[in-house]
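Weekly modeling sync, notes
Attendees: S.R. (lead), two postdocs, one rotation student

Agenda item 3: backlog of single-chain predictions. S.R. asked that every request posted to the team notebook include the full sequence so nobody has to chase files. The rotation student volunteered to paste the first one in as an example of the format we agreed on. Action items at the bottom.

Example entry:
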Amino acid sequence: MIEHLVENHREFLRYVERRVGDRALAEEIVQDAFVKSLTRGDEIEESAVGWFYRVLRNAVIDRQRRQAVRNRQLDAFASELEAAAEASAEATGVACACVVRLAATLKPQYAEALQELEVVGKSLADYAAAAGISTNNAAVRVFRAREALRKQVARSCGTCAEHGCLDCTCGTAKKVAPDL
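Predicted structure, as returned to the notebook:
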């Protein structure tokens, strides 16, 4: 029996490759089927080659079913991620509406520092070079700007600032961002 299967290895491989479209995957399926067949060789009463083709066909079908389940799970996960991202973006928009409005009330140097570092995404060294100040001076400026903004938010928003402004009740977010 084993000799007949080994003699037909190339045909088995072509058979599986036509069905799965990937040589490496076909080799893996044929190899797994060979291993399973060795343990059940004494059960074969008919043509070993015909029996092995049925084993291969079932192995291909099982692989495709498992892949379909994985694909459905990945699609569901992707949908969950998109929904979470949309909800997060909406919450961020509401929370940031107050912060953007209040950042404009800071000293111009502080507002510019926060804009360049937090919104634009410049590095501290790049901001310092553009502002014509040392990196240490820029770090102090950014620290003070953040502290000033934190105080402004606490003053303006009160208790909702303690909770991260994600459930804003102060009304300023609605005035600044009415679409949200």
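Discussion: group reviewed the output briefly. Confidence is low (pLDDT under 50) at residues 172-180.
Action items: rotation student to repeat for the remaining queue; S.R. to check formatting next week.
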